Amino acid sequence: MFAKERFLGVDFGTESIKAVELELRAGQPFLVNYGEVPLLTPYDSKKPATRSFHEDMAVKFKALLERMQPETNQICISMPSFLGLISLIEFPEMTDSELEEAVRFEARKYIPSALEDVSLSWESLGTKDAVGTASEKDAKNRKTEVLLVAALNKDVWQYEGYVSSVGYEMKLLELETFSIIRSVVGSDLGTFLVIDIGARAANVILVENGYVKKSRSIDAGGRDITRALSESLNISVDRADTLKKSTKDFLNAKDVAVIFPAIETIINESGRMVESWKTTRLDGKIDSVILSGGTGHMTGLPQYLSKKLGLPVKLSDPWRTISYLPILQPKIALIGASFSAAIGLALYAIADAEKKKQS
Ligand SMILES: Nc1ncnc2c1ncn2[C@@H]1O[C@H](COP(=O)(O)OP(=O)(O)OP(=O)(O)O)[C@@H](O)[C@H]1O
Ligand SMILES: [Mg+2]
């Protein structure tokens, strides 16, 4: 009867599913449970796959919940951002109903599929002066920015299916970009480039005062880094993976000459986003780069990115607003930034419940 409300976030990644369960203690998010379950990866090719990736996902998700025994049946989940599209569109200033019509019309240009096959959402992010205009009061030159988000229905249904198959109620399904931003940036003011590097994919996200303004998914991640290390040093993939996670700096040390094409690709895309941002703002300054995802922990990566991008770079701390038992500290430090999406989802559940209580 006096049981506290629980909040559950689940991040469906490509190498693992991660879950975080929170409750509120003295008004603060407190970690009551978390879990991670590995998915089939290409490294498992030694053992022939007995089921498809999606079958594996459903089985592993069920197993994770059975292990965690969450004390809620409501769940917020994310799907990989490479399954969706996030675009910032500019419109002349207009009324809300005109905007609704204009967005529907414009969406066709941005979305390569038939609109009936797509789940579409959009949000007006306010108005701004067009770059290069002299007067702030010149209404003609004011633009409304709209963020358009889309994903194929078939992918949305796939993820909804995982949740309904375990009998849970889905409160939210979003692209991981938004979950990551909620935990690593929150409502911090400023302009940040968040680089999330997972196992298979990386997300480069431009965030202005807490709002996602640009987001790109890149087919480059930790798997590619392990492979490059294994090939360059002529060692097994397992050995390379251990070495990659060690304290040895393969990026900045003068005596190691391993080239990681995946990291160079991520740097090029990040540089391109920084440049394109300058064309949308009078002052296109970016305050800093925030690294997220498991690969964000790679020794020397912040220094290397900082040198290449000419910006301060730091590893994110998605746990910064979460309290937990002190005994968990070493483990939390280890998994650190790889839980950013799962935490962001559980934080959404909390914010949503608070909002409902107030209304
Ligand atoms: N200390 C570390 N140093 C370097 N790489 C690490 C470290 N810890 C984890 N990784 C790598 O991070 C990757 C996993 O990151 P993460 O958990 O964010 O991925 P994911 O969410 O499962 O996958 P994706 O985001 O691609 O869908 C793996 O490639 C792993 O080898
Ligand atoms: Mg991920």
Number of domains: 2
Order of helices and strands: EEEHEEHEEHEHEEEHHHEHEHH
Under CATH, the homologous superfamily of the largest domain reads ATPase, nucleotide binding domain
Rg from alpha-carbon coordinates: 21 Å
Strand proportion? 25-35%
Q: Can you identify the CATH class of the largest domain?
A: Alpha Beta
**Structure class:** alpha/beta
Gross CATH architecture of the largest domain: 2-Layer Sandwich
Q: Uncertain regions: pLDDT < 50 for 5+ in a row?
A: none
Largest beta-sheet details? 5 strands, mixed
Helix count, per DSSP?
10
Please state the oligomeric state of the protein chains shown.
single chain
**Mean pLDDT across all residues, rounded?**
92
Ligand species: adenosine-5'-triphosphate, magnesium ion
Cα distance, first to last residue?
Answer: 23 Å
Shape: globular
Structure description:
The protein has 10 helices and 13 strands. It has 359 residues and is α/β, with parallel strands linked by helices. It has 2 domains: 6-83 and 152-358, Nucleotidyltransferase, domain 5 (2-Layer Sandwich), CATH 3.30.420.40; 84-151, Dna Ligase, domain 1. Strand 10 (202-208) and strand 11 form a beta hairpin. Helix 4 crosses helix 10 (340-358) and helix 5 (222-233) crosses helix 6 (237-244). The chain is globular, with a radius of gyration of 21 Å. Magnesium ion (MG) binds at residues 13, 198, 293, 341.
